[in-house]
Amino acid sequence: MNWHAPDLLWVKVDAPVLRAPRTNPPGGRITEDMLSPDQRAALDTLFTMLTTRTGDGKRTVLVLAGAAGTGKSAVMNVLIEKLASAGVNVTLLAPTGKAAARLKQATGRETSTIHGFIYGSPAQAGVCPSCDAASVDLGISETGAKKAGLTKLTCPSCAAEFSLAMAKKIEKRLGFTPKTGQSVATAPMVALIDEGSMVSRELDKDIRGLLPANYSVLYVGDKEQLPPVMKKGGSLVDAWGPDFAHADAELTQVHRQAADNPIIDLATRIRTGQNRYDPFKVTVPDPSKRVRVVRRSTPTQAAAWLAAVRASKADGTLIAYSNKLRQELNRLVRKARGQEALAYKEGIPVVRADRLLVLKNNRGAKLYNGEIVLIESSRYPVSAGLRAEEFIFVKLYKSDEFLIHGPTFGLTPQDFEDGTKDFTAVATRMEKAAIDPGDSNWDEAAAQALDDLDADDLFDAYGAIRSSELLHCDWGEAITAHKSQGSAWKHVGVAWDFVAQRAWDEQYELGRRWLYTSATRASETLVLFDMT
What we know:
With 532 residues, the protein is α/β, with parallel strands linked by helices. It contains 20 helices and 18 strands. The strands form four sheets. It has a six-stranded parallel sheet. The protein has a five-stranded parallel sheet with strand order 9-18-17-10-16, sandwiched between helices. β4 (152-154) and β5 (161-163) form a beta hairpin. α1 packs parallel to α2, α10 (262-271) packs antiparallel against α20 (508-519) and α19 (498-506) crosses α20.
C-alpha cells in the first residue's frame, strides 16, 4: 500500500488496551439490587404500567429515554426477567439488523428486526387446501405466531389446523395477513423496541396497527440522537413515532464506569453543550488514545485509515456529514482496498469483498434500509436482455443472489423507482394474477410455472423482474450519520469537513445531534478527521 500517514492512523485492533471495558458484572447477569436509584425508579414505573392493563381496549405504548452511559441496557435486562416472572413474555425488536444483533448481545436473548417481525409473512389472501374456502385475516403473522408461542394456525372456515412448518409451505394458499384484526393469541406480550429514536411516525403506525392486540409496546432510545429523516420544515415532534418529548421514564445520570470512558465523556460533553466552542474536547484521562483527533486531515487519510481497519479484519466504518463527501470517501476507500483494481481486472463493476448500503426496504428479500451487505461474488446475467439493461447479479455473503441495476446505483428512492418500474410493474401484475384466486386470470398451473422461472428466463419471456430480486443500493464503505443509527462498530472514523463545521456554527442543534450520534457509534476507538 503506497501511502504515508501518521502512526496515529493505524488501528492495532488486537491490542488489549483498545478493548472496551467490561460494562456488566462478572458472569454478565445484572440484578435489581445492582441498579442505581434512578434506574430502579424507571424499572418500577415501567413494570407497573406494563403489568396493569386498563381494559379500555387501547394498546399500552411506553417510552424509556436515556442518553449514552445512563444504563438503558441494565434496566432492560432486569425488566425482561421481572416481566417473565410475572407471566409476561417479551419480544425483542430493533429497527435494523445490526441493532438487533447488538440487542441480542446486550440481553443474551433472541431478537428480530421490526420489519422482519411485523411484515414477516406475505399479506396474501388465499384458499385453505382442506376446504377450498377463502381464508380471512388471522390477525397475526406467521413470525408473530411463533413469537407468541403458538405451534399451529387454524382455518377460520373449516377449523382445519396446520403446524407452522406446514403453514409456511402453503402460505401462498392459506394467507397469513398481518393486518389488524382479532388476535389468535391471548397471552400478555410486550414488544420491547430498542433504538426507538429511529422509529418514524409511519413505522410507529404500522407497529401499533399490525401487532396482535395482546401486545404492549415499550420503546427504548436516546432522544438526543438525530431523529428519523424529517420533512422540510418539520420538527422533532413531527419526526418521531414514539413520544420522546414525554417519556414515561427517563435515565439522566451518566454512571461512573461509563463516564470514565473517553468516548462517553466526549459524547456527554457534546450532548450537554459543553463542547460548543471545541467540538472534540475530552476531559477524562485517555492513555490508550481511544479518542483521537487528526488535525489538517484529508479524505485520502481517512480512507487509508479505514482500508487499514479492513485489512486487519476489524469492525469499522467512516461517517460523513454530506452525501458528497460520503461518495468521495467510498471511492477512495475502494481504491485503497484494491477493489477498483480488482473490478478492472475482472471486468465487472462490483466484485467480491465490496460492501453495499441498502437504500430501500425489500421485505420480500428481508433486506432493509440502512443495512450494510457484503458481496461474496458477482456475475453478469445469462440473459442478453438483462445484460443490455445493465443488470448485474450479486451473491451476498451468507445470503441469496440479487440483481442490481447500474443506472440506478446510488440514486434516490424515487429515481430508483422511476428507473426500474418498467421491469417490476410487469412482474407485479403477473404475480398478483398468479397468487390471487379471485382474479379471473388466475391459473394454478401457470402460477407454478411462473414461480419456477429464474430471473434470466423471466426477463427473456416477459421482460419482467421480480421486485424481491432487485436490490436498491450504493457503496457502503462510508455512510452518513442517519444511516449509521442503530448500528455500532468497534472503530469509527468521523469525517469532519467544512460542511459539518458550518452546520455546527449555523445550525447548532442539528450539528450537535449529528456529532453526538456519530460519536456514540464507536465502542472501542473513535478517530476524528478534522478536514477544516
